[in-house]
Amino acid sequence: MLLLNPFFLASTCLVLGAVYVWQCISSPLRKLPGPTLTLFTSWVLKYHEFRANRTRYIHSLHLKYGPVVRIAPNEVSFASLEGVKEIYGSGGSGYDKTEFYDLFMVYGRRTMFSTLNKEDHARRKRILADRYANTNIMKSSSLDGIKERSGRFIERCSRSVGGSIDVFICKVKRRLHDYAFDGVTHHLFHPYGSDSLRDPKDEEVMKQVTFDDSLQNRLVEYYNPTLHELIGNILSVFAKPRETPLADDLVISACQKTGSDQFTLLHRMQDKSYGLDHMDMAAECLDHMAAGIDTTGDALCFLMWKLSQPRSMSVQRRLQQEILANSGMAFDKLPYLDAVVSEGLRCFPAIPMSLPRYVPPGGRTIDGYPIPEKTIVSCQAYSAHRIDQAVFPEPELFNPDRWLEEKGELDRKRLFFAFASGGRGCIGKHLALAEMKTLLIDVYSRYTTLPDGSMTEEDMEISDLLISSQPRAKKCLLRLEPLRGGEMLR
Ligand code: HEM
Ligand SMILES: *[C@@H]1O[C@H](CO)[C@@H](O)[C@H](O)[C@H]1NC(C)=O
């Protein structure tokens, strides 16, 4: 009877509430900058996550509170060089990943990306790393595939005729994802790579891997696995789960084939001495496919959008001049092109979001603040590329020239976090840069790009996916005008 007594109930609630509040306000994170509410609840953060706006929300907190911000009772975001070095670089590969990465397991297996601790990660990385080394990417068998696909991209765009005779409208985003998909499958399986720029069947596969609207469903899976299991079926009516049957077929059948080229990842993994079974290989391949499409595709898309703006025309001219004056030159020998790509990735790091890690046992001091063990800490490229205005003056301005200045070069490079850093940084970086630069050379040696009249700034605002992001409108229409010799003399 006592349990039903309203007075007893009310006082129990009061006591429990008081204990909770006491725990919160005596938390070691209370001394950190950040909204007071974040001491008590993570609901504000979750709200923004569900609205696909976590990155921008955290950035707004950094703008208000500085490079160190408490964003939830157990979570802190850093946007400083100290933070980057300690969290991602200490001991080589930084702190261990959190269970957030369980969401990236494939076929129930842990891939290199979804391993949580140093040891498991190092074991897998030893097998895969050399296939992504620059020397392997720069082999002609690898580059030829990229060049061929870039040629098909141009072909594909020039066929999508719109408006007047010499103006083409290209659905750049879709085409760039095809390009990135074909590029990465070439590297994974050649000669079994895809041809989505020409074959509609392969394009369907690409769409399945990339047009992923499972964000909300997977957030529920992460925050409340039990609930997700209970109401998964109902939930999937409102928030789609992630399913990729066509892509599964592609990787699983590719992994059973023999005779892939020496430079490919598959060739390496099939080496018996590594003891990987078919499912391990397929999981790893599907993961690299997913990791290589949205990122490279959206980074290129956003960069071409920026280059196409009226205020960027001088940048575009200078890029065209450098490319035409050095035709036949290797893509990695063009300093202005390099600056343009760096600036594109600075303004729009395709993975702009927090990369969550646990503070190791015993706790650590990060950027001057003592942080207890098991706290979730992270940096997000979007903020690391903007907060320190001594390193990146006028951070919202797309200005490739900043990368050509000698002053501050080291700081810029150290704060550049588009590929993350340390031992768990992007393994596909050299492949991604080769793909981006090859395509930009092919486009800007032939065309001037302009935004299509139907596109707005808001269309190109970032919208978060689980870890990468995309333009809010999920499209990017550009006009391609063929270059005429005379223009370049101006
Ligand atoms: C512009 C293009 C790209 C960007 C901006 C990018 C960015 C990143 C970032 C920030 C990480 C660290 C993620 C984390 O710690 O949670 C990462 C990891 C990774 N990326 Fe990329 N990436 C790009 C292209 C690629 C490509 C083309 C591949 C190729 C197959 C690839 C494969 C991977 C893999 C396998 C990892 C996991 C590495 C590890 O855990 O050791 N990425 N990437
Ligand atoms: C995302 O968050 C930022 C900063 O809090 C805000 O200015 C912006 O309006 C938000 N965008 C959307 C679509 O909610």
Structure report:
Keywords: Heme, Iron, Metal-binding, Signal. This is Uu.00g003610.m01.CDS01. InterPro entries: Cyt_P450, Cyt_P450_E_grp-I, Cyt_P450_sf, Cytochrome_P450_monoxygenase. Its cofactor is heme. The chain is of the alpha+beta class. It has 19 helices and eleven strands. Strands 1-2-7-4 form a four-stranded mixed β-sheet, with helices on both faces. A three-stranded antiparallel β-sheet has the order 3-11-8. A two-stranded antiparallel ribbon has the order 5-6. Helix 7 crosses helix 19 (about 430-445) and helix 10 packs antiparallel against helix 11. The chain binds protoporphyrin IX containing FE (HEM) and 2-acetamido-2-deoxy-beta-D-glucopyranose. The site of 2-acetamido-2-deoxy-beta-D-glucopyranose has 5 residues, from helix 3.
Q: Nutshell version of this structure?
A:
One of its GO terms (molecular function) is oxidoreductase activity, acting on paired donors, with incorporation or reduction of molecular oxygen. The protein is α+β, with helices and mostly antiparallel strands and 490 residues long. The chain has 19 helices and eleven strands.
